[in-house]
Design brief:
Radius of gyration: 22 Å
Structural class: mainly beta
Number of strands: 15
Helix content: 10-25%
Distance between the termini: 49 Å
Strand content: 35-45%
């Protein structure tokens, strides 16, 4: 069963768990004794010893392979709600030495420790369960591979890598197209009863560049059905980055 386990109030991550509350509400008829029953393990079969690694110095590539496409998938056949106008204001991410525009809404986070940090924002749009998300991550080794690893589920596709300029520096541009996700059970941090959930198709736009000693990745994540409505804001966000 796919379930979202909260990290902090208002945010969660996907984990695989056994949820009796949701199954009871859906009438599956599972009992605690059924959930707790564990079969005795069978005797292991004898297997030949593995062959020695002839290339011990070569580490496997942990980055998932995501199929590339020449064009984004067609947006869902659902009429998006009216555009929720976004007001912007200028901020300075002093630790990274960057200036950028963020949306004039709450729910921003900012953190920095030795060598790197993050500035993020989740903006609730009218009539939308999934927020618009902005994320800037800076630090040694930060790259687009992190974006791929964060969205490695079934059905995810990617644009071909493009070269460009961000913050006046050479950059790489990547888009990921994430299909809808039907969640059997969500556990809420605020005490609400567990319930099924749904995440609409998402588009993740990311640009990576290097500034001084820092590697920087900037992301814009939006429900795919709303991308064209907020295309001008997407362009403004990336164009707003300056490296004084």
């Amino acid at each position: 069963m796919v379930r979202r386990r909260p990290l902090v109030a208002g945010s969660f991550a996907l984990v695989l768990v056994l949820d009796l509350a949701c199954s009871a509400s859906s009438g599956e008829g599972r009992t605690p004794s059924d959930a707790a029953r564990v079969e005795s393990p069978a005797e292991p079969e004898s297997k030949p010893a593995p062959e020695p690694d002839l290339n011990p110095d070569i580490e496997p590539d942990p980055t998932p392979t995501i199929p590339e496409v020449d064009a984004p998938p067609a947006p869902p056949d659902v009429e998006p709600p009216p555009t929720d106008p976004l007001a912007w204001h200028r901020v300075r991410f002093a630790e990274a030495g960057l200036d950028l525009d963020v949306v004039d809404r709450p729910h921003s986070t900012r953190a920095w420790d030795a060598g790197g940090g993050v500035l993020s924002q989740r903006i609730r749009l009218k009539d939308q369960t999934e927020p618009l998300s902005l994320l800037l991550r800076a630090g040694a080794g930060v790259s687009l591979e992190e974006v791929r690893r964060d969205h490695k589920g079934a059905g995810v596709t990617a644009s071909r890598l493009a070269r460009g300029e961000t913050c006046g520096r050479p950059s790489e541009h990547l888009e990921l197209y994430v299909p809808e996700l039907v969640i059997e059970c969500i556990e809420y941090a605020d005490g609400r009863p567990s319930a099924p959930g749904y995440v609409p198709p998402l588009t993740v736009v990311a640009e990576a560049f290097r500034y001084g000693d820092l590697d920087v990745v900037v992301r814009w994540t939006i429900p795919t059905a709303l991308r064209e409505r907020y295309r001008a804001d997407e362009r403004r966000f990336f164009a707003s980055l300056t490296c004084p």
